């Protein structure tokens, strides 16, 4: 049993592909149409519902490692004019000794070998990245970069900051994530759809200022909603537990919410939440929350806000696995608890008010374990210490209740027909 996962734009070909796959392999094929979260991630949960033993993922992918099932990626092959791309590279980098790392969207990976043959004889310091599905075996060696499913080796003594980045692909979340992560490297791009090349004019510093403003909003927040944006990326459960502990130590209330793909209408239902943190893959974590009622931050930004031991170094992290215990590159342990009387005062840069900065002891903390759902008899006890629970206590509707055996069984009846402005059983007034 094999699950075939298609994005929306490729669903028209799903039936024919599944039929040919069944005729060729003899395996039973299931088509996964609409995914719960981003289509770039492998939907392991939907695959497990049909008992799939493997997943074939079609279309663009973020290449985040999965937890359980083996995955085969079929990126597709979008056309690329290698000659025009070579000319664009020469125009952008006329100096033949330029140090450049070439990155590409996954749908153009099939043409990178030909592009490498064209450019390597002229540019001795050029580096082409390789796509890696899953975690490579063994630890990274000195000079090796492993991020976003890309792998390459840097030979310069100054490291990656001595290189420029050349991206082959259209503007999108992947390019934005690359530019924020490698924000010390100048970027340029070639769009195969339009045939145009340019030095990227996106002001990365301006984008980082916006993200650092969200860090201040997270510091001021008292109630944080943890949005589950993936159920398939390896390590997401460990990160959820890490975020709950981090917020508990920082004296903040947290609620875990699984609402599928976040949008302003969904998140506006949780007025008691001051800020949301989205646990998702590297591409979907950078959610533009300007239209949302409350800001949405990344796990790294929440770490900057709540972990006093983590300092801003200029390196932005979009892959949440870098924050987990055991990560050699970015994990920072929480410091020891600081009593409230000994904590240094801190003033909010947004409201100008004093805020608490001490860390609570997890063993003596008075905060009970937080959960997204609370039983009715527990809500009143939580309301005494949580403003969010107080708000939920005043709600007239608190969720669905099963009431097993209490609801009488009734037969299905035919409903009303027509449109809301004029049902068929309604009389029409004669003029």
Automatic annotation (TrEMBL):
Keywords: Iron, Iron-sulfur, Metal-binding. InterPro entries: DHP2, DPH1/DPH2, DPH1/DPH2_1, DPH1/DPH2_3. The keyword Metal-binding applies. It holds the Pfam family Diphthamide_syn. GO terms for molecular function: 2-(3-amino-3-carboxypropyl)histidine synthase activity; iron-sulfur cluster binding; metal ion binding. The keyword Secreted does not apply. GO terms for biological process: protein histidyl modification to diphthamide. Pathway: Protein modification; peptidyl-diphthamide biosynthesis. Its cofactor is [4Fe-4S] cluster. Belongs to the DPH1/DPH2 family. DPH2 subfamily. This is 2-(3-amino-3-carboxypropyl)histidine synthase subunit 2. It comes from Pardalotus punctatus. The lineage of its organism: Eukaryota, Metazoa, Chordata, Craniata, Vertebrata.
């Amino acid at each position: 049993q094999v699950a075939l996962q298609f994005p929306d734009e490729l669903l028209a070909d799903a039936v024919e592909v599944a039929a040919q796959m069944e005729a060729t392999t003899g395996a039973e094929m299931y088509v996964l149409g609409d995914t719960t979260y981003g289509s770039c991630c492998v939907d392991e949960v939907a695959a497990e519902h049909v008992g799939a033993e493997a997943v074939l993922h079609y279309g663009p992918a973020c290449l985040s490692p999965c937890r359980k099932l083996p995955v085969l990626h079929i990126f597709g092959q979008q056309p690329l004019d290698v000659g025009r791309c070579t000319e664009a590279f020469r125009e952008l980098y006329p100096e033949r000794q330029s140090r450049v790392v070439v990155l590409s969207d996954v749908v153009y990976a099939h043409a990178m070998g030909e592009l490498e043959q064209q450019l390597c004889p002229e540019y001795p310091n050029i580096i082409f990245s390789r796509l890696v599905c899953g975690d490579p075996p063994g630890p990274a060696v000195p000079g090796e970069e492993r991020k976003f499913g890309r792998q390459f080796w840097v030979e310069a003594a100054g490291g990656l900051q001595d290189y420029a980045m050349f991206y082959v692909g259209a503007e999108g979340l992947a390019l934005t994530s690359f530019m924020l992560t490698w924000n010390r490297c100048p970027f340029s791009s070639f769009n195969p759809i339009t045939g145009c090349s340019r030095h990227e004019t996106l002001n990365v510093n301006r984008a980082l200022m916006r993200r650092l403003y969200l860090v201040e909003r997270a510091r001021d927040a008292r109630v944080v909603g943890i949005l589950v944006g993936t159920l398939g990326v390896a390590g997401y459960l460990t990160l959820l537990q890490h975020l709950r502990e981090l917020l508990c130590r920082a004296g903040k209330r947290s609620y875990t919410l699984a609402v599928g793909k976040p949008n302003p209408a969904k998140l506006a239902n949780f007025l008691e939440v001051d800020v949301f943190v989205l646990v998702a893959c590297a591409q979907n974590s950078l959610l533009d929350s300007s239209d949302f009622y409350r800001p949405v931050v990344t796990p790294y930004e929440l770490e900057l806000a709540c972990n006093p031991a983590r300092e801003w170094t200029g390196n932005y992290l979009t892959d949440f696995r870098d924050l987990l215990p055991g990560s050699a590159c970015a994990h920072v342990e929480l410091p020891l608890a600081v009593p409230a009387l000994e904590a240094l005062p801190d003033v909010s840069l947004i409201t100008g008010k004093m805020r608490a900065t001490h860390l609570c002891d997890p063993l003596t903390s008075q905060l009970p374990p937080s959960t997204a759902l609370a039983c009715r008899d527990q809500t009143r006890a939580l309301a005494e210490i949580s403003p969010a629970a107080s708000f939920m206590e005043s709600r007239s509707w608190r969720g669905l209740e099963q009431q097993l055996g209490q609801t009488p069984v009734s037969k299905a009846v035919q409903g009303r027909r027509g449109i809301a402005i004029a049902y068929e059983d309604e009389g029409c007034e004669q003029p």
